[in-house]
Amino acid sequence: MSKWEEELAAAAPRDQFKKFRQLGVVGKLHIFFNAVCSSHKRRELFHSLQKQANNEDSIYTTHTLQLRQAGGVRWHSTYLMLLRSFELKKTIQLYIRSLRQNTEIKQEDGSEYDPQADALSDEEWDEVEELVDFLQPAYEVTKRLEGDNCVSGFGSLWQILPNLQALWAHYDDANNRTNKSKYFATAVAFDKAKLDHYFDTLLIKPDVSLYAVPTALNPKLRVAWFKTQWKRFPNWYKKAEASLRKVYKQYVDEDEAEEEHPAFQPPTRRKIPSGTGDGLYERSIEIDLHLLTNAKSKRQKRTNQLDNYLDSLAFEHATTSSHEQRLLKHEPWAWWLEYGRMRYPIVFKVACDYLSIPSTSCECERAFSKARRTITCDRNRLSSATIESIQLQRNWLQRGVVKSSLRDLESFVRKAEKYETPPVAPSLPTDKDDPGSQSDDLYCQ
Questions:
Q1: CB within 8 Å of 369: residues ≥ 6 apart
Q2: To bridge 20 with a disulfide, which of 9, 27, 200, 406 should be the other Cys (CB 3.0-4.6 Å)?
Q3: Could you tell me which residues come within 8 angstroms of residue 38 by beta carbon, excluding any fewer than 6 positions away?
Q4: In this predicted structure, what is the pLDDT of residue 430?
Q5: pLDDT at residue 286 in the model
Q6: DSSP state of 171
Q7: Separation in Å, CA 435 to CA 118, 389, 410
Q8: Are 115 and 105 in contact (CB under 8 A)?
Q9: Rounded to an integer, what distance in angstroms lies between the CA atom of residue 318 and that of residue 313?
Q10: Is 127 exposed, middle or buried (0-12, 13-18, 19+ CB in 10 A)?
Q11: Angle in degrees, CA 247, 302, 218, rounded to 5
Q12: What is the pLDDT of residues 316-343, one digit of tens each?
């Protein structure tokens, strides 16, 4: 807890208003929003004035917007409060003018609420707009990293450093402004110090930066991105390249160990059906195909695939087809599956492990939320294997991993809801007509 927070907790309610007003427009709006939301009478008055303002505005016609309080519990609560206050600027001004004529509205603790002390001037409203523009990139970065890596292309671990670098450039530009308020200058300095701490923790301190490796494995970025963005910090991009080479060496050593000492699995033998004898003859002519592989032959010397991958960036961007260029720019994982796995097989193994790591735990939380809809009060005795099968099958059906006639049925339902005359329902194939339909029950057996 900071010194300011300790003084705020020990202060009386009237003195707390003064402490918040020392923060400028953020403190004033914080007091105003809490005062309105803490009383049903004030909320009703605010909504009625908002409807009155909406009638004069062609944008808002039927509904009202709720106030967002900056409690500090959720990320970006201050940004959302400032954004909503800027959207409701006209209503807030009408509300303060109406309260000036009605001094009987009091706080729940009995102290009078003075709306004139929280009225914002035109210069302060300009400061609110400036703070909204300043905080918006951080909010967008958070939402981008919370995305679904499979669907939206966001939320992968390789995006951590590029997004932090984008924030650092944004804060650096804001720091170079000449006309900054005291609160704005303090916010910029604090944000830059926090970003420096993040870079030091994610890149400099660890022996191998697990955040630099997936960034370099993005075929659009590679090591050239580090050298371009960190020209003033050569030790930084050298550390990123060293981390990638250390991880690559581990995979090369594992690949050599697997070829020198292959671990063969015993062949799978099905039970001989009854009526064909004791199976002695069948067993006598079986062949273990693993023994035919020349596993002890001298391993051919490999070229350094990592150097080829890093050096071919300009060549691949200049000579590849339009389809491959689109994958390079927008779908790094699809590029690895279609092109990279054949050109750089060992580097592809590294990409499989690192590009699939989510940047946040949001996707795991979504999986838990979906499982909650499966494990209901009436289905509380499902086994772990059944729950796993249901969740996997749902995910595979949504991603199109397995084929199912349920997709055709879903499109039929959507068309029926869209048009008054429903289209002809598709005929669902049976197991005899379409053996592939049995894939729906792949993990339910």
A1: none
A2: 27
A3: 107, 108
A4: 54
A5: 45
A6: H
A7: 71, 20, 21
A8: no
A9: 9
A10: buried
A11: 40
A12: 777 778 888 888 878 888 899 889 999 9
Asked whether 313 and 224 are in contact (CB, 8 A), the reply is yes
Residue 305 is assigned to a structural domain of this protein: no
For helices 13-21 and 25-37, the axis angle rounded to 10 degrees is 140
What is the rounded distance in angstroms from the CA atom of residue 314 to the CA atom of residue 225? 12
Which structural domain, as residue segments, surrounds residue 74? 3-132
Q: What is the pLDDT of residue 345?
A: 92
Task: Bin 400: left if φ > 0, else alpha if -120 < ψ < 50, else beta.
Answer: left
pTM here?
0.70
Asked if residue 10 is part of any domain, the answer here is yes
**Tokens describing residue 284:** 């006598």
In angstroms, how far is the first alpha carbon of the chain from the final one?
55
Instruction: Please give, one letter per residue, the 3-state secondary structure of 41-70.
Output: HHHHHHHHHHHHHHHHCCCCCCCCCCCCCC
- Residue among 232, 242, 157, 174 nearest 207 (CA): 242
Low-confidence ranges of the chain (pLDDT < 50): 60-62, 106-110, 269-278, 280-302, 434-445
Q: Is residue 445 one of the residues assigned to a domain?
A: no
**pLDDT tens digits for range 402-424:** 777 777 787 788 777 766 555 55
CB 31 within 8 A of CB 21: yes
Please answer whether residues 259 and 295 qualify as being in contact, where contact means their C-beta atoms are separated by less than 8 angstroms: yes
Domain count, the chain: 1
With 0-12 / 13-18 / 19 or more C-beta atoms within 10 angstroms meaning exposed / middle / buried, residue 284 is exposed
Amino acid, res. 195: L
Query: 83, 89 in Cβ contact below 8 A?
Result: no
CA 217 vs. chain centroid, Å, equals 18
pLDDT in the model for residue 246 = 94
Residues written for the chain: 445
Residues 6+ apart with CB under 8 A from 129: 86
The tokens of 136 are what? 């918006």
pLDDT at res. 199: 92
Which tens digit of pLDDT belongs to each residue from 280-317? 434 444 434 344 444 444 444 446 889 999 888 877 77
Instruction: Give kind and range of the element (H or E) at residue 313.
Output: helix 313-319
- Please report whether residue 307 resides in a domain: no
DSSP code of residue 422? P
